[in-house]
Structures are given as C-alpha cells and as structure tokens.
Amino acid sequence: MFIWVVTQNEEIFKIDNYVEYPNCLIAIWIVGMWTATKSLFCIDRHKGATKHKKKYYTACKISADDVRVKNDIKNQSRQAVKILILWIVFLIVEGVFYHYNIINEKMIILGTIGLRIFDKLFILIWCPFGAIMENKCCTTCRIHGWDQLMLNSPLVFIPSVTSYSLIFISMIYFIEWEIAIKRHPERFSQISNMTIRCTGCHEVCGRCKNKYKELWFSQLFFV
Questions:
Q1: In whole angstroms, what is the distance from residue 103 CA to residue 214 CA?
Q2: % residues pLDDT > 70 (the chain)
Q3: What is the pTM for the complete model shown?
Q4: Which among 76, 111, 171, 173 would be 20 to 30 A from 32, CA to CA?
Q5: pLDDT score, position 31
Q6: Which residues pair with 59 in a beta bridge?
Q7: What mean pLDDT is reported for the chain?
Q8: 100-104, 123-127, 219-223: least confident range
Q9: φ, ψ dihedrals at 72, nearest 5°
Q10: What is the pLDDT of residues 202-212, one digit of tens each?
Q11: What is the mean pLDDT of residues 203-222?
C-alpha cells in the first residue's frame, strides 16, 4: 500500500501471464500462507480457533445429545448462514465490479490487505460478525474457522498460483472446521466444552477488554 501511494506505479499491481508477480502479492502470499498454515495445524492459535480439535476439547458431564447443546449449535448455525449469505453477496458484487472495470487488480489487492487490518480491529475493538452472530466472545464464535477463507477469497478474481494456493489451503481449514461441527457439535458449545468457557480464559477479545485491560492494551497493534 505504501509503495503504491508513494510511486503511483500501476506496474506494481499488474498481473497477467506475461508479467511477473508483484512484490506486494508475494508478500500477501507469505503472510497469508503462514497464518493459514498456523490455523490448519493449530500452531500458536487461541482457543476459539482450535476448539474443533479433540485434544483441545475439555468435556463436562453434559453429553453431545443434550437438548441444550443441540439447540445452541442450531442457533449458531442459523446465525452463521446470515454471514455466509452476506459474504457471497460481497464476492458477487466484487466480481461484477471487476468484470465491468469499476475495480482492478490493484484495488482487489489493497482490499485484501485492508481485510487483514480490519480482522485485527474486529478482534481488539468490535466485530460486526460477532454482533450478527450474537456471540458472547471471539472464543465461542461459530465461524472462527472461516477467517482464512474470508480473508483470502477476494483473490479468486486474480488467477495466479499465489492467490489460488491461498484459497486452497483456506478451504481445507474451512472444510475441516465444518466437518468437526457436524460430527462433534459438543466441542463448539460452551455448555459442553469447558475449554471455551470464561473460567480460566485469558484471550484478547474486544468484548472482554475491560476484564483483561492490561493484556488488551499490550498487543502489538497498540504498542
């Protein structure tokens, strides 16, 4: 973003079969592939992003067949459909704009960078998706496993190995997440999973910033 603002060089963002990948897209690929890999293999990830794995699940006496657990997951899934529809509409609008040359590759790349900035802001300050989902906090969020796919999916309109590889690995994480919800719903409800309850939780989240104010303000984003 800084390079483009300073130089206004369109070649930095130009992508086709005859032009080498721009440095900014390679940088996005490095960052995106690292974060997607961390998510896929649960490397240094917080509780909300690892709750689909068995080893991070702490069961309580309530079973997965409990009516409260089933109703909780059904309600979460109904809210998640709203987010899915909104995101599909967003991608369709982006595709139409790109088709009619209202936006170009440069704007898509800048938008993708912007999404990563907003992703951090959503966690630290306020998340509109969490408001729609009516989440208690980020840790309990039903669509936590969608983050990488949502961040990388706008690159689908830029055909390249870098963009498609990011979308591919993000899709693997998304599918694994959804399969886990289908097969092990108890891991996604704080009614049945003690790991994602407030007790003993010290995750940084905008909705819990008053509880752990010092930890919240110590984040690199603010420093």
A1: 41
A2: 78
A3: 0.82
A4: 76
A5: 86
A6: 193
A7: 82
A8: 219-223
A9: -65, -45
A10: 776 766 655 55
A11: 56
Counting Cβ atoms within 10 Å, is residue 12 exposed (0-12), middle (13-18) or buried (19+)?
middle
- Label each residue of the chain as H, E or C: CHHHHHHCCHHHCCCCCCCCCCHHHHHHHHHHHHHHHHHHCCCCCCHHHHCCCHHHCCECCCCCCCHHHHHHHHHHHHHHHHHHHHHHHHHHHHHHHHHCCCCCHHHHHHHHHHHHHHHHHHHHCCCHHHHHHCCCCHHHCCCHHHHHHHHHHHHHHCCCHHHHHHHHHHHHHHHHHHHHHHHCHHHHCCCCEHHHCCCCCCCCCHHHCCCCHHHHHCCCCCC
CA 100 to mean position of chain CA atoms: 28
CB 29 within 8 A of CB 165: yes
The one-letter code for the residue type at 143 is: I
Which residues 6+ apart lie within 8 Å of 38 measured at CB? 44, 45
Cα–Cα distance between 4 and 24 in angstroms, integer? Answer: 10
| pLDDT tens-digit map of 164-175 | 999 999 999 999
- 204-210-212 Cα angle (round to 5): 45
